[in-house]
Design goal:
- The structure holds 2 protein chains of 2 kinds.
- Chain A is of the alpha/beta class.
- Chain A is built from 17 helices and 24 strands.
- In chain A, strands 6-9-10-3-11-12 form a 6-stranded mixed sheet, sandwiched between helices. Chain A has a 6-stranded mixed sheet with strand order 18-21-22-15-23-24, sandwiched between helices.
- The longest helix of chain A is centred in the middle third of the chain and has 16 residues, at 176-191.
- Chain B has helices at 2-19, 22-48, 50-62, 70-94, 102-119, 124-149, 153-174, 191-194, 216-233, 235-245, 247-252, 257-280, 298-308, 313-329, 342-391, 393-404, 410-431; strands at 180-181, 187-188.
- Chain B is globular, with a radius of gyration of 25 Å.
- Classes of the chains: A alpha/beta, B mainly alpha.
- Chains A and B meet through strand 2, helix 1, helix 10, helix 11 and strand 20 of A and helix 10, helix 11, helix 15, helix 16 and helix 17 of B.
Amino acid sequence: MDENYVIEMEHISKSFPGIKANDDITLRLKKGEIHALLGENGAGKSTLMSILFGFYQPDEGTIKINGKEVEIKDPNQANDLGIGMVHQHFKLVEVFTVLENIILGVEPTKFKFILTEKEARQKIIELSKKYGLEVDVDAKIEDITVGMQQKTEILKMLYRENDILIFDEPTAVLTPQEIDELLVIMKNLAKEGKSILFISHKLDEIMNVSDTCSVLRKGKLIATKKISETSKEELSKLMVGRDVSFSVDKKEQKLGETVLKVRNLVMADKIHNGHDIVNGVSFDVRKGEIVCIAGIDGNGQSELVYGITGLEKVKDGSIKFKDTDITNISIFKRNNFGLAHIPEDRHKHGLVLDYPLSYNSVLENFWKPDYTKLKFLLDEKKINSYANKLIQDYDIRSAEGAKTIVRSMSGGNQQKIIVAREIDRNPELLIAVQPTRGLDVGAIENIHRQIVNERDNGHAVLLVSFELDEVLDLSDRILVMFNGKIVGEFNPKETTPEELGLYMAGSKENYEFKEEEENGKD
Amino acid sequence: MEKTKKFFTELSKRTFNLLKSQGAFKTYSSIICIVISLFIGIIFLLCMDPANALPEFGNLITGGLKFGSANFFAILAKTAPLLCCGLSIVFANKTGMFNIGVAGQYTIGILGSLMFALQFNCPWYVCILMAMVFGAIWAALPGLLKAFCNVSEVISGIMLNWIALFFTNYSFQTYLNGCVDITQGSKTYDLDKINPGAKIPDLGLSSSTGGYFTIAIFIALIAAIIVWFIMSKTTLGFQLKASGLNKDATKYAGIKEKRNIIISMAISGALAALGASLYYLAGLEEWSVQASTALPQVPWNGIVVAFVGQLSPIGTIFASIFTTLISHGSRFMLQTSFPAEIGDFITGLIVYLSGLTNLAVILVNKYLAKRKEKQQALTLAGGEGGSLITNENVVKEETSNSESDEESNLESKDESVSLNNLEENNEEGGNK
């Protein structure tokens, strides 16, 4: 037994009804090492981590922490052993503040019952400064963006001074700069002697930060490689089992009429009263182009989309769809004008999780004659056959076909339902916010192809993404948002991630909207 | 021969599937809790009067069951309003609302039905309809407050209950002079005296059933079927259920969630008022204007039957019949040893236990899931599993996804996984 290993998971097997999620997996983590865990959705990464974190008991195999064999029965025990985890779906209390969430369970007290937040606040502020995880400690979780929520999760782990840290896809929602920062933080943590298990789909990050990488496929450990001895191509081949193309093919652009005109849009900030989160934004989107709004999470992109789609009321300015003013009309009407929306938060807005796949596939269109009898009865047969068509066309995988309750499906397939539903409505304008968040390479490839298809078919696409690779790959025109304003407009072929980064961070500004100007390339 | 054989194997397979469905598990849980509470009830009876306990307990259960007796029809008559109130709770609940204002809507329903019956001499169906309109409007108030001002429907509902009660009494005393018989201690008039046409039809069976039989029970049963139909077959039900499950998603989908809240409350209120009119227009009782300083009991019991019926319209039918049976049955017991409240006592026990048995069902499911897991692991190890893995890729994704979900959800996850799995197994068995 090597003294250096902090975690040894030996020959772990775990079966679920109908499936072997982990099959004889051996994973060893050294002290001060960053060990990446790579695999597609459903490859068994989450199961393995859940076993380590005490959610599940392995059917076979042993776990040793610091050379001692242990049985981890629940997450509390894992915590006592110094294991901390940032989950893919955050585990935060929505109505609590950031501070309350961080100290939850380890509240500092006086006389055992009086809460003393002062020291905790001090410690959290120090930690957040030290690692550059800037959050408003008094903001409520429900009011802050996904990115901020993730920072809270990381702070929570740091606050508990855990020695073994599990990051379950931590970079999925961060900007390039933030990712770089996080990777630096992770390296520093490793230097301080903390050991990190890093689950990710992103090969670049893995190559950049980790020391070792284990690849899982269909529940089996395919290989454990030293990063210094492998390449991105080799890893992706090991993960998917075939060669993967990293770029997207696009047809030549055919620009059409202007579909969306946003003029001086102002959206109020829900958290801080009297402050505007979107502050006078103007832009156009034309048929046959993908316009991408890049920027760091929390600079007003979400609210801008809420304004255009009608989820929140517009404070000032106007939105025109073709020649109709849609600034104040209902979401129902917007949907029927030909506006489709792939929402940022698929669980909150995109799906009714306890409805079957079939019902979710007609969430907006259930009232249409295609799916009803006598105008008020649901036509289950037609709904089912439509759902089956989507399942076929968009390769949605589920346990029981159209009858599957969506909650039981994997995140990637849930997202595929939304993408399929929205694109199949044949919209003139598709608004997609972070459409590939948390998905694996195969699914991302699929969704990117669908979005580009929309553009090639002469529809307009407005894409909001925090991932620069996606922005540069997909878009025909990039608008960078900072602090509620558009600060720059770029042609993806003539710009670099570094240049975009400068604008995203607010150190440069160069955008003036001109009415009726023919944007884009000619 | 072949065909009949096939039919019977099909039938047994289907029954087997049905017995393992989610709905069946809910039924088991309700039955378990009823049996346990009856058992505890027996223990209490034994403590009160050991010698008479068992035979008297038999009377409690079977007293109302003798077909053709007046008591049998009395139970049917009393079930009708209770069932409607239960449906009222069920309907609002599906939209994510807890309509605790059901008592107020019931009281307003009394006002509506008796006002049109006695003051305006309308026929019975008009009275019922007007009562439902009154109830709908009364329930729409908390709906409006919820939709536009985000006021909890529980708070506004409770307050409106009392407003409804005193508004009803005030209206009868001050404006509706034609309704109240002052000589009879300020009770409303007997329908037979003033307007026999306002009485719900009895098909000429009234005299042979001790005056208890009317078609009210059928109206209530039809209401239950309509509620089930709206919820599971119509676009309105689709929207309402979606609002109850995920408000944000319905907003995103362009469904008018505010309108839905109001509609759902209005229908819920109409059902409660329907219950009131089925009771008071059947001539079972008169409304006592001065003595009524507390809200009627029936709608509160409606909340009980809705939950014992597992918030399903069909379950509510059985729950309301059973609850009436118990509470009515207590009068057949030896009054010197056992107070009439014993029926209410057992109903109370059922309510408390229904929470506990849900827990029991979750535990049983967890155990079943674990056992299945082990069996699956064994078959997989046996070599048959190779094909399973490739075929059921999907299931794998499902399981790996459920892990990352919240801890608290794990129990229900296991439950659903186990149920899915049971069904799959059955299908496989059938194919072989």
